[in-house]
Design a protein that fits this description.
mainly beta, about 5% helix, binds beta-D-galactopyranose, aldose 1-epimerase activity, Maltose epimerase, Gal_mutarotase_sf_dom, maltose epimerase activity
């Protein structure tokens, strides 16, 4: 077990955690972000996630990739919500809506870091306080995100937070997997399963509508493993709307279940990710950046559908649709959530 600290651009730091099997999990204090998940496969190494080589490159190209997202992941319609009979207006940053907590949120902050090594696991924690009225959200909100890697090849991300005033809080981690190791290859041939009987349809602004639609007879039925491609080529208006998947799946099981709530398998079957979470949903985004999209990434070009996210959270829109789950954090109460990804190599 080891943690190697290095520079990650002009101001940021990179913490590369290594377990006894040679699995590497690298995270940066810039955005409390995952940068590498790199594993040995036979005599080679394979990078399982998208990322860049410095904080500056994220700022220039895509600041959401791999980041901790908050205060509220996903979209708040019109940037407005009610809390305790008070109306709040938060800063809009995508058309008429507030995406991922508004401009310059968690993903752009330099977090305080702390590392810990023990016999069987290594961890790096990041702490950040979002001040009262940041982008219009109430409460001084302190958030701690801990990334852990253990000798069973489990990567875990856990959140702890509290606020001095009642507020909304619904964080996630915006990791993009590509288990081929190549951002230049589509994730179409990955096998995906998700234990969800329902998904949340979107309107033409990518906002949830409150509906919980049965996945049966739709391209959203991943209860048995199938190729991601089936959702990419589907004629379902919900898939056509976003050119793939950008939808919350409402998870069936409690976390103590033996089987994972989602599983992603590489086309060559040499590596798989098993996900379990305390969150009630997972937003799956198939990196629908558009036909012909190319973005230089690690000596390759990231392409349309060159990654797939498993963003565990309460489904976006919960401030309006309480049936999705509760994202109200009362004053001085402790928020806790955990997601674990078992790496099957
Ligand atoms: C996802 C969201 C997408 C897109 C992406 C950011 O969480 O669902 O619509 O905004 O973040 O690149």
């Amino acid at each position: 077990m080891n943690i190697i600290e290095s520079a990650f651009g002009d101001h940021a730091k990179l913490f590369t955690m290594v377990n006894d099997n040679g699995v590497q999990l690298a995270v940066t204090d810039f955005g409390a972000r995952i940068v590498h998940l790199n594993v040995p496969i036979n005599n080679e190494r394979r990078e399982l996630i998208l990322g860049f080589d410095s904080a500056e490159e994220y700022i220039a190209k895509d600041h959401y990739i791999g980041a901790t997202i908050g205060r509220v992941a996903g979209r708040i319609a019109n940037g407005s919500f009610q809390l305790n009979q008070t109306n709040y207006q938060v800063v809009k940053n995508e058309n008429d809506n507030t995406l991922h907590g508004g401009p310059d949120s968690f993903e752009m902050a330099y977090w305080q870091s702390e590392t810990d090594i023990s016999d069987n696991k290594v961890s790096t924690s990041f702490t950040h306080t979002s001040p009262n009225q940041n982008n219009g959200f109430p409460g001084n909100l302190t958030v701690k995100v801990t990334y852990t890697l253990d000798n069973d090849n489990v990567w875990q991300v856990s959140y702890e937070a509290n606020s001095d005033a009642m507020t909304l809080f619904n964080p996630t981690n915006h990791v993009y997997f590509n288990l081929t190791g190549h951002p230049g290859m589509s994730v179409a041939d990955h096998m995906l399963s998700i234990d969800a009987d329902h998904f949340a349809p979107l309107d033409d602004q990518n906002l949830t509508t409150g509906e919980q639609r049965d996945v049966a007879q739709t391209a959203f039925d991943f209860r048995k493993a199938k190729q991601v491609n089936e959702a990419l080529i589907s004629a379902d208006p919900q898939n056509q709307l976003v050119s793939g998947l950008d939808h919350p799946f409402l998870l069936n099981q409690a976390t103590d279940s033996a089987s994972p709530q989602a599983r992603l398998v590489s086309p060559d079957k040499k590596v798989a990710i098993n996900m379990r979470t305390t969150a009630p949903s997972v937003v799956v985004f198939t990196a629908n950046f558009g036909d012909g999209y190319q973005l230089p990434m690690r000596q390759e070009q990231l392409i349309n559908h060159g990654g797939i996210t498993l963003e565990t959270q309460v489904a976006p829109g919960a401030e309006k649709y309480p049936a999705f789950g509760n994202i109200v954090l009362p004053a001085n109460e402790v928020y806790q959530a955990t997601t674990r990804f078992d790496i099957d190599i």
